[in-house]
Specification:
Layout (H helix, E strand, L loop, with lengths): L8 E5 L5 H15 L34 E7 L2 E11 L5 E11 L8 H12 L2 E6 L5 H13 L6 E4 L8 E7 L18 E2 L1 H7 L5 E5 L2 E4 L7 E4 L1 H6 L6 E2 L2 H4 L14 H10 L7 E5 L5 H12 L5 E4 L2 H7 L25 E2 L1 H7 L5 E5 L3 H5 L11 E2 L3 E2 L15 H10 L7 E5 L6 H10 L5 E4 L2 H5 L7 E2 L3
Parallel strand pairs: 4-5, 8-14, 9-12, 9-13, 13-14, 15-20, 16-18, 16-19, 19-20
Antiparallel strand pairs: 1-2, 2-3, 3-4, 5-7, 6-7, 10-11, 17-21
Helix pairs in contact: 2-3, 8-13
Length: about 475
């Protein structure tokens, strides 16, 4: 089979709601593994119901520090899983141990496993062990090559002692997250952004879909703003071949009293399919102004299990500043059929945000300006200030002066400052769930394992006088 594009592969922490999924995949994994005759059949016994004898307590992966259940997806579809823990195959504990790693047969020998390993090592630093059964000849060849390809240079092999493990054990150190070089982007980085250079080189790709998402918020005497479509901007000048997506009209629930409300999964799938997005397409989103409208589409796709999408770094402004061509008028893509599967935990509702106020494991982040956060801005959503206990990372501070995204190190410093990276969950909000998606993209780029966007944001929160708010920093 053909190789799979690495950018379509995503490794993500499994929520507890996905525990049955992991347990089901574990049965497939053990069945696969049982095709090799084990040295000790008692170690691999099936119970009376045909399930695998529980030498693994799956609940540990959601309650113990250092235990990480991971789902591996390809273009939004589940392709495998990994279980990272701290149990050494040489006895005792180790910082990181690859407890289990499974890729479904459909995706094997197509580059998925190697890309999944790269992403896992980028997520979790420290001293690693990977143990392979002596009879597993395929894995014995795969693992040293995959670890080396991920950028690890101190790979060492030791043999199991026969008591705790029979077979080779590879040890290595990941001192810092393995990530791309800092500085200007040069391609599709698989973490939410794509460069103008890459887009110019791939404009003729048959599976590429490029969309202008521009929306204008105009001052209004009633409410904080008036929503205006950016279609006129698009028709005046757009990237050659690009189509226009009407975010407030076609990609929002227009029956909701709140602006930009996320539509149902079926409604979203129909709208995106009508725009030409199918299961095998690659999507690039951009705007003529702030990237928040493009990141909104990116988050909507990501939350629906569609990972093969990116935001154009620098948008149309950078494209034009580089002297690249534009065209006038309107383009459309042929319609496609798209099925979406919601990703658990990607969106937060008001009760979830309310509960997070007293939860020390959650960092709630306001992406609005510092003046809006403190309550000093003359523009508000019905009440001044911010959700009680939330921290402020203004969306504008995530960008350089030219509108490109700041480096990972600069983004990390901003979110470290508010404690977002040291807490296991982050909830991002703003006025209407738009600029919050910029913070969500930045946190996702930094490898945060659990990020959600409060869709209603202050447009909903401020309508409830009992929902606590604060002013000041």
């Amino acid at each position: 089979m053909d190789a799979i594009e690495p950018s379509s592969v995503r490794v993500e922490p499994a929520s507890e709601a996905e525990r049955p999924l992991i347990e089901g995949l574990l049965q497939f994994y053990i069945y696969d593994f049982s095709e090799m005759q084990p040295a000790d059949p008692d170690d691999f016994a099936f119970d009376e119901q045909g399930g695998y004898a529980p030498f693994i307590d799956m609940a540990d992966y959601w309650r113990l520090d250092g235990y990480h259940p991971l789902v591996i997806r390809v273009a939004g579809r589940v392709a495998g899983f990994a279980l990272v823990n701290t149990v050494s195959h040489r006895g005792g504990l180790v910082e990181r141990n690859m407890g289990e790693f499974f890729i479904a047969r459909l995706y094997r020998r197509r580059g998925v496993a190697a890309e999944a390993v790269r992403q896992i090592l980028a997520l979790y630093r420290g001293r690693w062990e990977v143990a392979v059964a002596e009879r597993n000849t395929v894995a014995k060849t795969f693992w040293p090559g995959a670890v080396a390809a991920a950028g690890v240079r101190d790979l060492e092999q030791v043999d199991g002692d026969g008591e705790h493990w029979r077979g080779p054990i590879w040890t290595f150190m990941v001192p810092t997250p393995i990530r791309q070089e800092e500085g200007a982007m040069s391609g599709w980085d698989g973490r939410g952004l794509v460069s103008t250079k890459w887009l110019a080189e791939h404009l003729e790709d048959a599976n590429l879909r490029v969309f202008d998402l521009t929306v204008h918020l105009r001052p209004s005497p009633i409410g904080p703003y008036r929503i205006e479509s950016g279609r006129a901007d698009y028709e005046a000048a757009h990237i050659p071949g690009a189509a226009f997506l009407d975010l407030p009209g076609d990609l929002s629930d227009t029956t909701s009293p709140l602006p930009f409300t996320l539509p149902s999964g079926d409604q979203l799938a129909r709208a995106l399919g009508a725009a030409g997005i199918g299961p095998h397409t690659r999507v690039v989103a951009y705007t003529t102004i702030s990237p928040m409208w493009a990141t909104r589409l990116w988050w909507m796709l990501r939350s629906s299990g569609f990972d093969n999408a990116a935001v154009l770094d620098g948008g149309l402004a950078k494209w034009r500043a580089e002297g690249r061509p534009v065209e006038r008028g309107e383009r459309r893509y042929p319609p496609a059929h798209l099925a979406l599967v919601a990703r658990p935990g990607a969106w937060a509702d008001k009760p979830t945000v309310m509960a997070a106020i007293d939860d020390g494991g959650v960092c709630t982040i306001n992406a609005l300006s510092s003046a809006a956060h403190t309550g000093e801005s003359p523009v508000n959503y019905g009440r001044k200030g911010h959700i009680a206990g939330s921290r402020n990372v203004p969306y504008a501070t995530l960008l350089n002066e030219d509108g490109t995204w700041r480096s990972d190190d600069q983004l990390r410093a901003r979110f470290d400052h508010v404690g977002a990276l040291e807490r296991p969950k982050a909830i991002c909000y703003c006025g209407g769930g738009i600029s919050a998606t910029m913070a969500a993209l930045a946190l996702t780029r930094l490898g945060h394992p659990d990020v959600a966007v409060y869709d209603g944001s202050l447009s909903e929160w401020c309508r409830d006088p009992a929902a606590p708010m604060e002013t000041g920093a």
